[in-house]
Structures are given as C-alpha cells and as structure tokens.
C-alpha cells in the first residue's frame, strides 16, 4: 500500500525528470522505487537488495533523495556485492537521515570498522556528486578510519604453510582422479549435484593454478580457452602478450577483471592470458567433452539435431561452469537457444557462490585448517613477496591490483619475520633434518663455531663458496637449506654469542634508522632457537627409543 509520503516522493522525482528505471552495471533494469532491487540475473552475492527501509523511512525528503542518488550511483558503477554492502551497512546509521557532524563524531568511535568504511564511502560519493555541504563530514570520516590490519599471516585466515597447500592440492587432485570421464551419462546426470561436484572440482583446480577469484571463473566462456599459439582476436590483448606454442598440447586462458569501475561483466580482459599446464589442459579438455555430451543430450531432448562442428561453434559463448538450470531449460526454438549466449551474456553461468570452496585439510600448526579461495591468493602473494618479486609481477601473477599487491611488498619487519618462520623454515627444516646427523660424512666440509667447536656440515660445497650472507659463518648458516646442523653440537653457545652481539649493536648503533644489521641478527637468532628445539626433540626421542 503506497502512502502519501511515497506518492509525494515519486511525484517530485518525475517533476525533476529523474527516470525511475535504472540500468545496473550488470545490465539488469531496476525500478528505484521498488522495495527490492534484483541487480543480477544469477543468485550470486548481492543479487537481491532490500531497500524498503529507505522508502518507508520518515527521514526528510531531501535526505532520502540524496541517499537514493548515492545508491543509484553504486548501482550503475559497482559490482553487486559492493552495492549490497553499502546499502546494508548504511541502514543502521542513516535510516533516519544524515546526522549532523557533531552527532556523527560522538558515535564514531563505537562503530565497527566495516560500517565506518561504508559511511565514509557514502559521504565521499555525495561530495563527488556535487553536494559540497557534506565536505566536513567526509573530511572527518576519511581521516578517522580504523587502521588497516592485514590478516594474510593469520593462521586461520591467511596464507597456507607448505604442508597445508600440498594437502589442498592432493585433496583436489584425488577428487579429480576419481572422475570417470568416459561414463555413459544421460541427461538426468547433468541435472544432479554429481555434475555440479565435477564442475566444482575442475573449478577448484583451475582456481589454484590461476590464483583467480570465483567471480572471475564464473564469467568464463569456452571462447576464453584456446590452444597455446592461437589468437583471441581481442583488441584489448596484444598478440605479443598471448601465449605462444611451447611444443606441447597446452591451453591459454583469457580472464576478465572482476571489479572494473563503470563497466559490465566481461568488458575488460586482463592484459596477459594465462598459460595452463599440460596436465590441467588435459583435464579441461576431458571436462569439455563431458560437458558437450550434456549439451547435445539437452538439445536432442528439445527435438534439435546439431552436427558436432556446429555444436562446438555454438558452445563457444556458453559458460565453462554452468548452473544446472541450463539442462532443464524449456526452449522451443534453436535460434532462441543460440541467441541466448553472446560474448557478453551471463545467462546460465554458475554464480561465484557456487564456485567458492571451503575445504578442510591437515595442518602442521593447528588441529584443522579450513582453506578458502581468499587464502589461495594470500599464499601466492605472501610467498611471492618473500621471494622478492616486484609488485607489478605479483599483481600480474595473481590478478590483483598493484595497490593490493603492494600491501604484501610493504610489510613491516615483524611480518617478514613471521613469513621466514612459517615458510622458509619448512624448506630449511626439511633439508637440514632429513636425516639425523651427529658427525659429518667423510670428506664433507665442517662448519665451526666462534669457539672452534664443530656445529654442522655442508651439503653442497660450491653453493657455500658463492654465499653472500652478511653475518658469515656460522651465524649466517642457520636457516640455510645447505647447512646440516649436528644434533649434539653446542648451538646454545652460538645463541648466546648472537644475543650478545645483538645487545651491543642495539646500544651502540650510530644511526637509529640503519637497523638492517639488527634485523638480520634477530632473524638468525630465531633460526638458532628453532634448530636447538629440533635437535633437543630428536635427541629426546632417540633416548626414549634406547630405553625401550
């Protein structure tokens, strides 16, 4: 039932020539006076937004108009998930209109971080749209946002350890290995969760290999997957950036940016197509064969007979990962079927939510490890940053923006030490303690301590000859995969020596800004502590075995 307030607001919009129908970034058309906005054709995150609180609010008409203007701007230019977040997070604090600056300041400290961000976005957008009276509000919110806290080293949400990542890859590979690609499937097979699980398994493998978001995979069509050496014929991708033939049967993948402001889906491809391994290429070809069988069965059930060549051409604009509704579609004309799939269409594409995984794998630092899609990107970015990759290369590998990749490059020293402990340590410990060592094998070079006691051996002498460790032997050896610490050596003496050296450096450092020597010493002290702990543990287990 429309009340007088809603009628008045509608009439004022029409008098000012403001259209009631708005085209969203996704291409969907929305009536801005509806209480629910359907802004995506699929049931992806943010596809349906409730705005009844806005239209039924007794806030001043001017405030209602300005807030509606903000939401319309987001509808036209932002992804559905972003629009949903802004609308939902605005409600608790703007349902009665815009507060004055004093009221905003008084309650600011008690707001959660995500709501502070949204309110800042709203006032920033109002300012951008020409409402200068909100400049003071925006200056305050912009300068009083909570400091960003990175979670990419968080054991529960951040990057995976080597063991955790290996377990994830093993889980996905084992799942794919159980699929019988030659099974004689009927049409009902493609309407069940069995086919959905196959789609998700392939998507998970592709996600790990490409380090891309679920939303990007959900937009993929078969025309985005072509042989290495072939040409996409896309003016946004230069031929020189495409993947050339490498002498093996491999594929290259075109991926579209997920969050490109002011444009619809599949509008801006990434500059560089992604080269897929021979194994993954074979998996995708097997999956495509199974997929095409389902499309052919579907068309036959509708009374259409299509030659294989025509079917492949027709399928080029079909989604790689479809929603199951595709195989239950009631279509009476082949032309209708063909016209439903274009280079820009998103009809029958699986939603990003359907491709998002949440898998549990064994961990070497927790009882259980839950892996999500975000953690795959955290892992790739963290390890790339640790290996010293430039920010532009990190962004290209993972598909994130350069500012997003820079967060991983510009980590503070404490964060880098955590990476050293969690990732470099795995390789060092695996190499250093692959066998219990009490004496160096004959002919192996010995590393001696500052008091001339033997502390370890060298795996590969030529590698040591080119070592550039600033701290020299033996301090610089701890943490190196080429170093084999002796179990019964006096590593505690080296720890005491390093600790004393650190204390002296801290007291007599001439320039407090030149802290690299201190940082290096602190890192090596952590390595020595890890070595001591592991030597003690191995020796203790050996003694327990001798007693038995």
Describe the structure.
- The chain has 548 residues and is mainly alpha-helical.
- The chain has 21 helices and 12 strands.
- It has helices at 4-15, 52-55, 61-77, 80-94, 101-108, 113-128, 135-143, 162-177, 193-210, 214-218, 278-301, 308-315, 334-339, 352-355, 373-386, 391-398, 402-409, 413-432, 461-465, 491-508, 516-547, and strands at residues 21-23, 29-31, 36-38, 48-50, 225-227, 251-253, 274-275, 358-361, 369-372, 446-448, 454-458, 483-485.
- The strands form 5 sheets. Strands 5-6-7 form a 3-stranded antiparallel β-sheet, with no helix packed on it. Strands 10-11-12 form a 3-stranded antiparallel β-sheet.
- A hairpin with a 5-residue loop joins strand 10 (446-448) and strand 11 (454-458).
- Helix 16 packs across helix 17 and helix 20 (491-508) packs antiparallel against helix 21 (516-547).
- The chain is flat.
- The termini are far apart.
- The model is unreliable at 422-427 and 510-514 (pLDDT under 50).
Task: Summarize it.
The protein is mainly alpha-helical and 548 residues long. Helices cover 49% and strands 7% of the residues.
Q: Which features characterize this protein?
A:
three-stranded antiparallel sheet, flat, mainly alpha, single chain
């Amino acid at each position: 039932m429309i009340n007088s307030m809603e009628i008045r607001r509608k009439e004022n919009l029409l008098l000012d020539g403001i259209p009631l129908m708005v085209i969203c970034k996704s291409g969907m058309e929305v009536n801005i006076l509806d209480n629910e906005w359907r802004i995506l054709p699929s049931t992806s995150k943010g596809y349906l937004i409730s705005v009844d609180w806005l239209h039924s609010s007794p806030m001043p008409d001017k405030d209602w108009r300005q807030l509606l203007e903000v939401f319309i701007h987001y509808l036209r230019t932002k992804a559905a998930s972003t629009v949903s977040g802004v609308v939902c997070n605005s409600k608790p604090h703007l349902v009665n209109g815009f507060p004055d600056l004093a009221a905003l300041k008084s309650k600011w400290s008690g707001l959660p971080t995500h709501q502070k961000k949204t309110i800042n976005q709203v006032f920033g957008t109002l300012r951008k749209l020409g409402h200068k009276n909100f400049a003071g509000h925006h200056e305050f919110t912009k300068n009083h946002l909570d400091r960003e806290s990175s979670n990419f080293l968080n054991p529960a949400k951040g990057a995976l350890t080597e063991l955790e990542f290996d377990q994830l890859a093993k889980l996905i590979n084992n799942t794919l290995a159980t699929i019988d690609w030659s099974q004689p499937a009927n049409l009902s097979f493609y309407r069940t969760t069995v086919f959905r699980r196959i789609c998700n398994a392939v998507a998970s493998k592709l996600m790990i290999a490409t380090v891309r978001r679920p939303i990007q995979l959900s937009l993929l069509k078969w025309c985005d997957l072509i042989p290495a050496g072939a040409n996409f014929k896309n003016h946004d991708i230069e031929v020189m950036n495409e993947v050339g033939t490498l002498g093996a049967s491999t594929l290259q993948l075109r991926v579209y940016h997920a969050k490109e402001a002011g444009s619809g889906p599949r509008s801006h491809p990434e500059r560089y197509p992604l080269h897929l391994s021979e194994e993954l290429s074979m998996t995708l070809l097997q999956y495509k064969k199974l997929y095409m069988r389902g499309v052919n069965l579907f068309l036959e059930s509708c009374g259409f007979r299509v030659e294989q060549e025509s079917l492949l051409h027709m399928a080029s604009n079909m989604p790689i990962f479809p929603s199951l509704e595709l195989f239950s579609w009631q279509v009476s004309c082949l032309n209708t079927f063909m016209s439903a799939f274009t280079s820009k269409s998103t009809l029958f594409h699986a939603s990003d939510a359907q491709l998002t995984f949440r898998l549990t794998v064994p961990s070497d630092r927790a009882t259980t490890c839950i892996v999500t899609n975000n953690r795959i990107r955290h892992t790739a970015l963290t390890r790339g940053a640790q290996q010293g990759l430039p920010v532009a290369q990190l962004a290209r590998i993972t598909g994130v923006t350069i500012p997003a990749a820079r967060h991983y490059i510009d980590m503070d020293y404490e964060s880098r030490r955590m990476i050293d402990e969690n990732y470099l340590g795995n390789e060092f410990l695996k190499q250093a303690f692959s066998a219990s060592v009490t004496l160096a094998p004959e002919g192996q070079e010995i590393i001696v301590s500052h008091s001339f006691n033997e502390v370890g051996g060298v795996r590969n002498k030529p590698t040591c000859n080119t070592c550039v460790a600033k701290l020299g032997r033996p301090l610089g050896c701890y943490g190196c995969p080429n170093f084999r610490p002796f179990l019964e050596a006096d590593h505690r003496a080296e720890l005491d020596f390093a600790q004393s050296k650190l204390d002296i450096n801290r007291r007599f450092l001439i320039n407090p800004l030149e802290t690299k020597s201190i940082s290096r010493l602190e890192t090596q002290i952590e390595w020595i502590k890890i070595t001591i702990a592991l030597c003690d543990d191995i020796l203790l287990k050996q003694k327990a075995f001798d007693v038995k």
